[in-house]
Give the backbone structure.
Amino acid sequence: MLYQFDSTSELDFNTFINIFIYGLKMDMSFAGYLSFIPFLLLTISIFNTRIICTILKVYTYLCLFFTSLLFVLDLELFRVWGYKIDVSILKYLDSPTEVIASSLASPILLLVFLFLFQSILFLFIYNKFIHKKIDGIHKEFFWKASAFLLLTAFLFIPIRGGFGLSPMNQSTVCFSNNNFANQAAINYAWNFFDTVVFEQDDANPYVFMENSAAESILTKLYSQENSSLSVLKNERPNIVFIIWESFTYKLLNENGVVPEFNSLIDEGIFFDNIYANGDRSDKGLVALFSGYPTIPGKSIINKIAKASKLPHISKALAKENYESAFFYGGEIEFFRLKSYLATGDYSFIESKKNFSEEDMNSKWGAHDHVVYKKLEDKIMQANEPFFYSMFTLSSHEPFEIPIEPLIKDNDEESKFLNSHNYADKSLGNFISNMKKSRLWDNTLFIIVADHGHRLPKNSKYFSPEAFHIPMLWIGGALSVTDTVIHSYGNQTDIAKTLLSQMNMNSDEFKWSNNLFEKGNDNFAYYSFSYGYGLVKDSSTIIYDAQFSRYLEEKGLHLDKLKKHGKAILQSSYQDYYDK
């Protein structure tokens, strides 16, 4: 709570105290789990006290190491993600280089100090007051053994959280309308191991209605009319997908940060009510390419058997003889991206290994201007028609840039803004070069984000502002320019919107809507780690499934929106499990 002091300072005194009162239940539960093995060992310590003491010491050291490690990870991850550390962190362990690069935006020295301080402090307490007393357990052993055996049995009370009908879970510590207070009350270690043990792919945890009722709602939500605005000069243009890392809509209102993008808006079709489906790149890329929604706590990209069953824009275009390629200056194996792209039938993939050593000028790999140059060169040699995608990386943590910063301050938000200013300059230069090429008149450029961001202004992790992203269509292939589309939509809607413009069948993208449909009842749905948000016109609902409560309800027809949101959550989870 000291580490998240900005949020803690907003709490009133009663809420502050109740965090500890309610949180104590979960602390005791986890303490009960950790105590089970020592209590059991102490009941048999008479047989060999020395061995038991050694086992207990090793066990305690390991527990202190892992809980201290989880402690410092949780401090920083909560600041960035907005929720307690859980099993989702494990999926990043197979890409240690990228994890290290990402972590460089964190106060590493402070976290290391806190890790060492907590570990050493509690190791001292254990050795000073506990370990040396265990030798005396064997005296009058039989009544002590009986006592320890009884105490071991009684551990089920704190572990379970008491004698109520419901066992210990995250909702047990939910006591406030302030979501930060509820999150603060959750024991980080309990939450991590709970999700490790129980978040399996064997059941849908979000069932609110009969599946048939949910499917009936989805049929209406994702139904289309026939009439549509036509925006292409011809049905088979070249397509260039620019996926801008962490490009939040909030940046458009930051003075001088993204002037190149802002200047391009009048030259194309700008979508001002688009929302990212999820909060991480692995979720955003699947939503963009496969038109597939994100689900709380899961990423289908980590399940290649499931991901291989998804539709893919590049596969649909391959049927029309499109050459497809993906460009990324970083490690393509990160969060299993390479395996997912392999299901998309790309003609070729350019990644970190395709750049020279001198181009590795970023912790992540090659900076944006280098990758844009690679993309530009490939476009000039491409066989038409082509579908090329580029995923930028310079605006990812640690927000390092190869140019003079726009803002001289060194705080995290300033670095974030500077990285996007550089990303904007790189984009502007690329588009300027493309305008001079012979391919401009027959090429559509789609610029969109992989996800939003809490920065700037440090938006709450579940707020619509953290998911609101810009999308711009530009290029000589457009027959319509200087147009703003106000329809609410998601990254998942790009697939059907694009293919419909090309008069191609898009039925396999069942979670996608055509943003150009006249009279379509548009909405934007997004999910975060333990809940979802749904935005439509002036109405918003945000549901926290972890605590089974709504974090925000405003606008009209809220009962209808709640039913729609739950139907999408239930059906998207069911679809994930059924794959």
The chain has 19 helices and 13 strands.
